[in-house]
């Protein structure tokens, strides 16, 4: 089988640097694509954590002036696969978070320009058949390819992980981007009188993917498109919804070292030790009633304001809550106030802790994901794999991956969780009541858990679909 060489460019990749699900996806893709004749090289910025992990890496290219700064390209490995690191200390060697700086336009324009240069053959001995850019931070790469003077343009794909994050900047940055004047146009980088990084990529890419089939349809609507629905509609023939997968080497309750007690679908009784550990970690009263968990950003998008309203009822019905997350200050305060109001029934940890997230999936009974929109979502997939039953809004990837425990699904033996309609107090509270009623029937609940754990949400099928798309764009199919 001939090998197709793909350059995957993103602002983060697990396990080197992560703020959310984007990193998990970028980190998992190389393994998912390898069985299909695709060799993936990942390009990420040289943040301090990345630099520390690739000490001694070989310099394979230099830029004397990349968006106004000197930069080097380092060659290393991420797992079993090639890694390229954009070493530009002036842009990326910062002690704080990855995003939120006044010069983010410059930082990620540099990443995109470097990716386009590499994909065009600027770096000796590096040759790629296709460029795959993830989210707005890398979306300018296809635009740079589009306006380059290369004799042959490398085909490109842009994946929209969340269309709400678009990389919009003032028009004053355009002269600094190194693009021809013609690029500042309605079908170029111009966006509502400014510059739109994601918009530019969506215009320039040969194909657009989103991270679930339902989300691919939703973003053609005003409600979900966030101002880009018209563009998505005009390019609908090039839009593909491919649901994310999870890495069973990382998320597997049978081998997960973060769990005090490992288990399988045939040995669910072993989860009880993990439940006791969750109670201890979150100061919850010991008991056999259901523990609900939240592992999330605490934001309006995630429906956390509605969940706060439901907590008194959740507790009154005999439920408990263990929450791990951070986000909007007023929502953090509201959850902490609920914990103070219900000591022993609600426990809150503000922040993020990767091993603790594994414990929650392996010890809590159900995970609440009442998102107003959710492109794909990974936490519900982790929940399915761990027998932590998802309670989700019927939107995006949540709708695609969780089978509601309605009468027909229960009779057919295929239910894997609970869905509710548009996020609101009554819809979410009803879903919680349904889950608690099902939990009171142990055989029924265990059946739902086992159905989820037997489902295949690995990257096998998604990897095949990405590989087919790549090959169709490069003529290798």
In summary, what is this structure?
This protein is 39% helix and 20% strand. With 477 residues, the protein is of the alpha/beta class. The chain has two domains: 4-245 and 459-474, Glycogen Phosphorylase B (Rossmann fold, 3-Layer(aba) Sandwich), CATH 3.40.50.2000; 268-454, Rossmann fold, CATH 3.40.50.2000.
Could you walk me through the main structural features you see in this protein, from its secondary elements to its overall organization?
With 477 residues, this protein is an alpha/beta fold. The chain has 20 helices and 18 strands. The chain has helices at 21-33, 48-53, 89-92, 104-119, 135-138, 140-146, 197-204, 213-218, 222-225, 229-234, 271-282, 304-316, 329-341, 354-363, 379-386, 396-401, 407-412, 425-439, 442-454, 460-474, and strands at residues 4-9, 38-45, 58-66, 69-78, 81-87, 130-134, 156-160, 168-169, 190-191, 194-196, 207-210, 239-241, 291-298, 320-327, 346-350, 366-369, 389-393, 418-420. The protein is globular and about 65 Å long.
Largest beta sheet, briefly?
Answer: 9 strands, mixed
**Which radius of gyration do the C-alpha atoms yield?**
23 Å
Question: How many separate domains make up the residues?
Answer: 2
Estimate the mean pLDDT confidence.
96
Global morphology: globular
Q: Order of strands across the biggest sheet?
A: 3-4-5-2-1-6-7-11-12
Number of helices: 20
Q: Which stretches are poorly predicted, pLDDT < 50 over at least 5 residues? A: none
Secondary-structure arrangement, i.e. CATH architecture of the largest domain: 3-Layer(aba) Sandwich
What class, by secondary structure content? Answer: alpha/beta
The CATH C-level name of the largest domain is Alpha Beta
Strand content: 15-25%
How far apart are the termini?
A: 11 Å
Tell me the CATH topology of the largest domain.
Rossmann fold
């Amino acid at each position: 089988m001939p090998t197709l060489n793909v350059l995957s460019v993103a602002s983060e990749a697990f396990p080197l640097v992560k703020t959310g699900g984007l990193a998990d996806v970028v980190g998992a893709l190389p393994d998912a694509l390898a069985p299909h004749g695709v060799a993936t090289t990942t390009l990420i910025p040289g943040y301090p954590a990345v630099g520390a992990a690739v000490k001694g890496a070989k310099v394979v290219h230099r830029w004397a002036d990349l968006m106004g700064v000197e930069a080097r390209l380092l060659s290393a490995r991420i797992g079993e696969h090639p890694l390229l690191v954009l070493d530009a200390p002036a842009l990326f060697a910062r002690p704080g978070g990855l995003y939120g700086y006044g010069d983010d336009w410059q930082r990620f324009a540099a990443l995109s320009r470097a990716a386009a240069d590499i994909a065009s053959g600027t770096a000796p001995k590096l040759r790629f058949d296709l460029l795959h850019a993830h989210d707005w931070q890398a979306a300018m790469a296809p635009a740079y390819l589009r306006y380059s003077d290369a004799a042959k343009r490398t085909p490109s794909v842009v994946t929209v992980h969340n269309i709400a994050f678009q990389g919009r900047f003032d028009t004053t940055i355009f002269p600094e981007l190194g693009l021809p004047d013609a690029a500042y146009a309605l079908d170029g980088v111009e966006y509502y009188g400014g510059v739109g990084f994601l918009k530019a990529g969506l215009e320039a890419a040969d194909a657009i993917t989103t991270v679930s089939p339902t989300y691919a349809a939703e973003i053609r609507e005003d409600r979900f498109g966030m101002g880009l629905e018209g563009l998505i509609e005009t390019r609908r023939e090039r839009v593909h919804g491919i649901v994310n997968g999870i890495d069973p080497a990382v998320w597997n309750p049978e081998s997960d070292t973060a769990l005090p007690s490992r288990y399988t679908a045939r040995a669910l009784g072993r989860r009880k030790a993990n439940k006791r550990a969750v109670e201890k970690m979150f100061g919850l009263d010991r008991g056999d009633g259901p523990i609900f968990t939240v592992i999330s950003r605490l934001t309006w998008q995630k429906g956390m304001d509605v969940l706060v309203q439901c907590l008194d009822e959740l507790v009154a019905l005999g439920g408990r809550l263990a929450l791990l997350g951070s986000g909007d200050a007023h929502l953090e305060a509201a959850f902490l106030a609920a914990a103070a109001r219900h000591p022993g029934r609600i426990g809150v940890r503000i922040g993020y802790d990767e091993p603790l997230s594994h414990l929650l999936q392996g010890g809590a009974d159900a995970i609440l994901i009442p998102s107003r929109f959710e492109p794909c979502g990974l936490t519900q997939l982790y929940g399915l794999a761990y027998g932590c039953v998802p309670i989700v809004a019927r939107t995006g990837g949540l709708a695609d991956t969780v089978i509601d425990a309605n009468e027909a699904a229960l009779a057919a033996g295929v239910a894997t969780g609970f869905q509710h309609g548009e996020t609101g107090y009554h819809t979410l509270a009803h879903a919680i009541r349904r889950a608690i009623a099902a939990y009171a029937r142990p055989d029924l609940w265990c059946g739902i858990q086992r159905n989820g754990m037997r489902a295949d949400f690995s990257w096998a099928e998604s990897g095949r679909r990405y590989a087919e798309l790549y090959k169709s764009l490069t003529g290798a199919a």
